[in-house]
Design a protein that fits this description.
single chain, mainly alpha, Arc Repressor Mutant, subunit A, 2 domains, 12 helices, about 65% helix, about 0% strand, globular, disordered N terminus
Amino acid sequence: MTPQQPTAARPDVPTNPVRAMPEAPLSLRERKKLKTRQTVRREAYRLISEQGYENTTVEQIAAAEVSPSTCFRYFATKEELVLPDEYDPAVIAALLARPADEPFLTSCREAMRDLIRQLLRHEREGLFTPMRLVAEVPALRAGVYRSSNNPQQLFLTALTRRAGVEEPTYEMRVTAAAIAAATTEALLQWAADDRREDVADLVDRTFALLESGFAGV
């Protein structure tokens, strides 16, 4: 009887493609940093859900996973800790993958709808929890546009890269500001309404409104 050969080790296959998205372009060291950020952020969401935003300190969050000094190296403020930014590169990549001659609003509509549907399948709470907090906490809502992951800057980065220019025009800045505000409002509406409406459909309807030039409003 021929002895059974040992089975070759199978390469790790990501069980969650959405979580794998922000890791794809990173080095091993950067991936480790990203995982630490995600772990600390999940602990923040847990504590805030139990104690409330105002009653939860960065020191309390850090104590469960890392030292306070390490936590502050990753997150300059509590606002940054709560507001996720790890999927920003995936958003930019999805926008740049759209046809170059496609209207930018159409590119945003298609890319954002598809990414949100992926998040809903694999990271529903990761999408809902921060938006619920932003909807409920005035300081966080104001902080959305102060944070390092300002949504206007996200869309502006994609727009200028696609245009192949170093500095955005005034028209680009206005376009990015309108898209960022509309997308944020759609996500906040979804969170405030306790997810009763499909968020991908809501985002799609939001971009349809932008594309129509607010006709009928």
